[in-house]
Fold these 4 entries.
Entry 1:
Amino acid sequence: MEQSAFFWLANLPLALSVPMIIGGGIVLSLIGTYVTSSIFTDGELQSNNTVAAPKFTFIGQVYSVTLALALVGGWDIYQSARDGVQREAVALAALTVVSQVFAEPSQREIQVELRQTIQLYGQAVVTQEWKTMSRGQNAPAATHRLNRLVELYTTVKPMNAVQVTAQQNAMRLLEDLATHRMSRVSTLSHALIGLIWALVLVGAVVSISFTWFFGSPSVVVQAAMSAIIAAFIMMHLLVILKLTHPFAGETAVSPNPIKFATQ
């Protein structure tokens, strides 16, 4: 349920996710400022400034470290996903080259099927699996094409030393392909654990709500400062959300490397 909510948010267009997440934080800060200014007098709130300032500084420093760690972790997830797609595309392109070695007249049929299966695998990944990965799932069609590709390269009978070497290289490339695909479709398991998300979200609420108990001669100025801090924090949360879901939404890793490798 928790991951489903994160996937849903990550898949939202930026035109919706930006006002929803950042705007939601701003609205929360304005409501909190209004409520506290209604309950406490300006004098009571201003008397907190001296005592609360060092405490807020401490909270800000601790939370900045938490956000930094989450951002680094998110970037590592995104970068690993992008690099994995590149390596998967390289393996597919190399398998296409290897298929050309099996060019004896009696191997014509299997050579054609090898190329077609590589293309069909690429099509299944680009047109189907990229969509299912945005929900944390894989596509059965891509799995079927990969299994068929393994079967073809395993059953082809080499007719000379060059083909023997080509078949050995093909098996190594298939192992690489399967490894990179598994890493790609299992992105959900690489996401930030719920405990870290809880820490980041609780820290955001604490940091935003703490500003409500500072005082200012002008409530408007106080509300503006709280809104700016809230927007700044929520922007970071939005970036972390997008980075930790590299195959979701408008900022998703592109499937073009696989598309070009299997054309």
Entry 2:
Amino acid sequence: MIPGAFRRFRAAGGEIRAAFCIMLAACAAGAARAQSDMHTHLFAPAAAAMTRARQANAELLAPRSFDRGTTAFGKADDLFDRHQPVDAIKEELLLASTSFSQAIDAATTAQAQFAPVMKARTDALSADAPRFSADLWARAEARLRSAAALMEDGKPGDARSDAGEAQGMYRSAELEAIRETLVGPAQELLDRAEQMHVATTAHKTFERARLMLDRAEALIRQNRYDLTDARRLAGEAKYEAAHAIYLHGIITQLEEQKSSLEDAILLSESAIGRIATALNTPVAFDAGCDPVVDQIIGTVTSRDSSRAALADSLRRLREENAELRLRLAGAGRTGEGAPARANEDLKADERQRVNAALAHAGRFFAPREGRVLRDGNTVVLRLYALEFTPDSNALEPGSAEVLARVDKAIRLFPDCHVMVEGHTEAGANETLNQKVSEARAAAVAGYLRAFPPPAKLIESEGWGSSRPIAENATAGGRARNRRIDIVIFPGGAATSRHE
């Protein structure tokens, strides 16, 4: 019996030890929670003051006071970890809170004293200078911190000197970041092209890329806050650099294969021929590539015109369908029904006359010169062939013949009113675009008024670049957006069709 009792005693002892360990763990956990709660209670005011100081940018603008506060806060934390007297911890925390409050006041003063520097810093940040001009940015930050410290030390003259240097560094960092962002990709391609000796085989394209990049950089230096043209030129420089690398590869390959000039021409004809095949347009290269290209352009333009004509026919059919429905609805009526039907007949006749005149006017202009469109109840002569002196309203001599045909087209619509609209491509100076569009529209309207009056009234208005019909990212799209629209209101008062 004794061994069994001994075993039971040992088991009971094990349970007691386990319970004791659990009790010790619970006490330790409670002590840790109490320690954490005490830390939070003691340190919360100073920690909140530190957060407010950081939000005031005191690390940069009041480094002396802020560093004094963080040093005292760290010392208090060390004292707490070593279980030092609470009074000593509180003393350091009081110094930390006071220092952070002083840092906030000093930072607020510095914000006002260094306003031009802070504006330069904000602009550099907007340009992502810490990423694209890291060295200059770091030097500017250090110099501004030095200026703020000198201000805290009561040396305003030295502080202003350092602040001025910091401002210059921030502006340089901003410019470097803008340049890197805009022209960096193109510059990388040009550097690669130079390493490949591309200029030996594709000299013209390579030089064109370098010229565009130089112009982009000049525009950035001239006005870093209006980058529309600089961005466009940098994009074109990147394209031309990539194009030069491609040409270099093709020319090098042809040279290695000892291909002749005939092989190169046949290669080009093959590429153009694939386009013609896709369009189901038989072509012949016995007169060179230019006639084939013109033929392809004619096919595409014809299809575009056919689609526009089909859309216009569909619109007219819908109008006629609506008219028939109205007539059927009024067929059983008497009295006012007859005048209403007569009025509808007159409207239908007028529409037919306008449609016939529109089709006739379309024959006055080649696809490259312009298009004749129907826009609701108006007719639009969209002219691409009018040429002006750059950024002015002076018509080039070649425009006279086009305007003579415009006059003939207007005469197809008796008693009409005409609005001449000027439109430009998007550019850096929208105010100038607006003025140019108004002046050009007025010049065309004045020219048309010089003919024997074809219309009751000819007015003009400019829309700048606000009414594009193509993308401004390509040269072709910009050329289409630079246009004059002659808007004809058959038998109605001329008003803006954009209202």
Entry 3:
Amino acid sequence: MKLFSSGEKLKPFWVFKSPDGFKIWKIFPTRYDKVLCELRNLEGKNVKFVCLSTENGKKVWEDLNIDEPWWVQISDSDEDLFFLCEFRRPDFPVQGKIYAVDSNSGKILWENEEHTFLFALDGKVYTAKNFIEKRIFFELDSKTGEVIREHGENVDFINELKEFKSESMNFIETSLPFDEYHPGYDKIVEDIKPFIEDADPRFPPEVLTKGNFAIVNYHILNKSKLPLEIEKFSNILKIINIEQKSLIYEDILYRDLSYFLPDVFFCKGDLVFYVKNQTELVTIKLP
């Protein structure tokens, strides 16, 4: 982890580098001041979880006391808890055993391998049990894992709660394709265009606006080194001060892509999070 001071142009606020041999597979923030990184070693087939403070990038804890070395993933967060799930079968990735993890300590509060995890919301965990001819839904206490109530086959109730779950994740802001359907497109399009003139038209830029700033993700076509070489693309992230019409940050996330990468960054408060080369988690603090 490295900390940087700010200058006239923005610099990384902090950077976390994954251990040798591990790739950053997934990052998942809590509503408060933590982010959990899921790191995978593809050759060794093992997974590592590292919790970082969003305030300075320092490790809060790492490594969990989980027997499963590979077939487990981050599934959700709610309040100050993370929820991890194993797969029932490697060749059939249906979620299996549930782990509730305290984000402050890394302590596993409870485990459950009888229920299938759905989502966590407002201190409750919603799960299901699948039978031959029916599916029964349950509500568990997120701190203890104890069943609070059974909801039978009331899928309408669960679907309604899923909408509230989506709303509860609004503290994470993501980008949208930059076209006429983008909020504020007509207002900022002329300010953004000069900074993305080299964008490949086959891959629409994605933009998130926050106050006077626009965070942009787009792709450019790399110059071919050999005749008939397969096309490769670079993935660019830029932060633009719309009011001053100036570029205040730029980074190349990937240089040899053969496909389009959407949703490469998100914002939480005044912090921009993105992964570079699958080995660095970079944060930028907006002024």
Entry 4:
Amino acid sequence: MNRAKLSLFVAAGAGLSLMSSGCLATRKHVANQIAPVQAQVNTVQKQSADNKQAIGDLDRNLATTDEKATEAGRQAQAAAQAAARANDAAMQAQQRADNARQLAEQNGTRLDATVNNLDNYKLVDTQKVYFKFGKSELTPEGTQALDQAIAQLGNVKNYALELEGFTDRTGNKSFNVALSERRADAVEVYLTEHNVPLRKIHVVGVGMDEANGKTRAERKEDRRVDIRVYALDLSGQAANQPMSSSTNMPATTGSNGAADRMTNTTPVATDTSMPPATAPPAPTPTTTTP
């Protein structure tokens, strides 16, 4: 019985030993078979890890590139907007320059017109002052006519006065010229006494009137001083009128040296250093003998 058990145990041990040996051989074989596959798997895993790393780097590079592209787009848009603003500013500057040039041309044209019209006069008023035969003293009617002329001067700027003295045909030429000058001088004195600047007055003694009145009424009409008021016309609308119809006559000198002193000269600006011309109260009418 014991021997049988011993034999059994020996047999079992031998079986186990054989089985163990067989298992070891099988595992070694399997290991040898698996080793190349495992090496390939390890290689693939390493490549996969490397690929993941490369993909991550590529993703990061792409993100950086996208950010740079976005920033470049913003910069390009900002540059385009700045260029548009600069273009608008340039157009506005050009428009201002064009406007300034047009304004300068207009001002230059107006200035040229003003300068060209500095000698352009317009007749705005006339008065006649009559004298007694052989006399150069003002009559009440004459002072009344002068007062009317002085009153009109308050409405005129840059004016010039022209005084032309006349006589009738009675007497010789030299006497009549001197008498006409004295009459014009009397009118001039009256005007200056009533705040009319002397530099605005142009005096000429004509002498005998060309009309050469023959009747008593015509000779009375000849004994006079014509007052013409001219205003400077800078608009150029009025034709350039001569300062006197007698400017082509030779200048003469009377007792006061007043003949043709300032004929056809350019008037200066309205005098501000003297009070404006004022008309005195109307004289009391008196009865005179014609």
